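haha ok so turns out i had the wrong file open the whole time. this is the CORRECT one, sorry everyone. sequence first:
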Amino acid sequence: MLKIEETDALLVVDVQNDFCTGGALPVPFGERVVSPINSMLKFFDHIVFTRDWHPEDHCSFSFEPEFRDGSWPVHCIEDTPGAEFHPDLRVPVDALIINKATDSGREAYSGFDRTGLAEMLRRRGVERVFVAGLTLDYCVRTTVLDALQEGFSTILVEDGVRAVLPENTTSILEELRAAGAETVRSNGIQ
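then structure:
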């Protein structure tokens, strides 16, 4: 069991309606990350939720999307129901909310990409981050890699993530472990 310390933070990446069943860009079983994430909230003093918060004319939108990097259906338009957090996800009132991919001319997958998140975490004394959310192969992956690059000890919550392409899950987990991330299941923390 990993004991959560005052210097730990939980980063919840993009658990938004458009990435769940019925959304514009549904991740297979994306809503299944909600329960493991909710079960961990009570352990953390520092909780961050990121969200795609695209303008209507975002550069990644395509009317003939390839469903891969740089070619997606219209999704998570700022201030729309699709951009809202999943209705069952508990978002504490004191949680930090980070909007990302807000520049119409530039894609941004990572919660650290031009958001000031690293500095915000450092000001709060955070040294280790636990990462969960959607999607493992894009936004979660880049958030984990950037957290490591920023010098945070980084732990991926395995049962708290899902991939756009589930068949890539094993290779992405291997890549993240090789980069220095650890993994844990949500029931492995206290």
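The domain at 8-188 is CATH 3.40.50.850 (Rossmann fold).
again sry for the mixup
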